[in-house]
Amino acid sequence: MKKIIAVLLLSVSVMACSGDDEQKTTANVNADQTPVKNVIFLIGDGMGLAQVSKAMQTRDEPLNLEKANYVGLMKTSSSKEVITDSAAGATAFSIGVKTFNGAIGLDGNGRSKKTLLEMLAADGYSTGLIATSGITHATPASFYAHVESREDYYSIAQALVNAPVNLFIGGGEDHFDKRSNEKRGKPDDRNLVKEMEDKGVTLINNLGALEKATGRVGYFTAGQHPESVIKGRGDYLPKSIKPSIDFLQKETKKGFFLVVEGSQIDWGGHANDLNYTMTELYDFDKAVGAAMKFAEKDGNTLVLITADHETGGLTLPTSDIESDEPYSEAGHAYSTIGHTSAMVPVYAYGKGAEKFTGVYENTAIYHKLLSVLGK
Ligand SMILES: [Zn+2]
Hints:
Oligomer: single chain
Helix content: 25-40%
Mean pLDDT: 91
CATH class: Alpha Beta
CATH superfamily: Alkaline Phosphatase, subunit A
Bound molecules: zinc ion
Number of helices: 12
CATH topology: Alkaline Phosphatase, subunit A
Structural class: alpha/beta
Shape: globular
Strand content: 15-25%
Number of strands: 12
CATH architecture: 3-Layer(aba) Sandwich
Number of domains: 1
Low-confidence stretches: 1-30
Distance between the termini: 55 Å
Largest sheet: 10 strands, mixed
């Protein structure tokens, strides 16, 4: 009984607090309806509510995600399937319409549509893509390529050579300079790394080099996909946020659009390996923290965090908080090695964040982003 009263009192005080906060925040929002200048869009591939819940339960410190002052729920289906893949999922974000699984930057009828990144670049914004997979993988590719199959690395790599991307950081270098191995397209011996350099792209091999770099810059972090955190990838994802922002701001005063993917949260789900998922999620959350830190200081930046879908059908049927093994088998269960159709959370922080509450389709992300940017 005592416990119930304590819980009741707690809820009342929480309600009172959030009421005050809301009033304050609403006042701030009403005071400033000018467009957002910069957007940092972080995608935790395969990061559903159960993954985030588990990460919260197994950490002493709150996640950075928990600082998000506005939260929404997103439906993730693709044009033909209730369960999306990452290509259709990220394409919904990048072009604002649903497409079929596997498609990159095309609408449901296979027609190419300009992506948000391409539109903003044409409008004078600087743009960046960072991933812990190949930079040619489905999610990052959906912002600069237009192909029917996500497996078509042959064409996706070619698209990046000419894409209006000021900065990219991720794996996949082999798709640029070992093209005779490709299974799609017409495998060739072109060296796109060299072709990019000939076009003036500076390729760097450490984050420190970003400070002096100008123009278009690329950093290949692996030939194929980078390793997992467990296998020693290190923390280039969170560490890249600040220097990337500095770089993008140096390029133009107009504003920047930076897309960051925690690619391997999804792969932990496919492997039904909770330790894999959690280590990738913590790494991603550090990147979220770095983005929020900038947004807080800047005051003109929106930080948006979501997933393209949930992976693994993770459930948390019993508590294992007291266990020495936070990922003990009793504490979690997977229901599939694939993706699921469950809604995923959307976390928004900073300027324009209030526009992201509610329940909506994945395509709404594109339209909401355009709206907060004043487009
Ligand atoms: Zn997946």
